[in-house]
From TrEMBL:
SMART domains: EFh. The keyword Oxidoreductase does not apply. One of its GO terms (molecular function) is calcium ion binding. The gene is Capsl. GO terms for cellular component: organelle. CDD domains: EFh. This is CAPSL protein.
Length: 209
């Protein structure tokens, strides 16, 4: 479990459910429906879309979009789905770009929050190449305190890999975490935390920044 996530997840889910009744914006509604499932909710929808994307084009047409929503058990009527689809299909091509969709769906964050998230990312990205790998973690993260390492279940590398998998896009666990994936993860956590100050303190404590 990552620093400070379980409790925030619960708070966020409760808050999202509460806010759902207040909003009429279809994108905000979809965002809140995802967040009601915890900080991985948006990623989970991404995974449902990945499964829909048979030809690996990383785009979805309307039919795939609706099927993805249904498979993820998002009950949305056709008019609302069309409205959301139109918002994301900026060029009117009849398809939407998957990554753009997930970024837009991500809860907005202040610059102060983005900065502290980037500080944590840079601390973990020892090699400075914009991707966190097992190699990067060897220098910064001590696997020896992990209970599964201590009882002999996992090697050091397995501990590192599990750590990276927390942040990795669920549909693309490749042992590499990009800035985008790290930001997406923390956007979910951030949504449950009202003040920048509290978010920054949490990040500083979690990552010893």
């Amino acid at each position: 479990q990552m620093p400070g996530t379980a409790r925030h997840d619960r708070e966020m889910a409760i808050q999202a459910k509460r806010n759902l009744s207040k909003t009429t914006d279809p994108v905000e509604k979809l965002r809140l429906r995802c967040l009601a499932r915890g900080s991985a909710g948006i990623k989970g929808l991404g995974r449902a879309f990945q499964i829909m994307d048979d030809d690996n084009s990383r785009t979805l047409d309307f039919k795939e979009f609706v099927k993805g929503l249904n498979d993820y058990a998002m009950m949305i009527d056709k008019e609302e789905a069309q409205e959301i689809f139109r918002i994301f299909d900026k060029d009117g091509s009849g398809t939407i770009d998957f990554d753009e969709f997930l970024v837009t769906l991500r809860p907005p964050m202040s610059n102060a929050r983005k900065e502290i998230i980037m500080q944590a990312f840079k601390k973990l990205d020892k090699s400075g190449d914009g991707v966190i790998t097992i190699e990067d973690l060897r220098g910064v993260y001590n696997a020896k305190h992990h209970p599964k390492y201590q009882n002999g279940d996992w090697t050091e590398d397995q501990v590192f890999r599990a750590f990276l998998d927390n942040f990795d896009s669920p549909y693309d666990k490749d042992g590499k975490v990009t800035t985008e994936e790290f930001m997406n993860y923390y956007a979910g956590v951030s949504a449950s935390i009202d003040t920048d100050v509290y978010f920054i303190i949490m990040m500083k404590n979690a990552w010893k920044l």
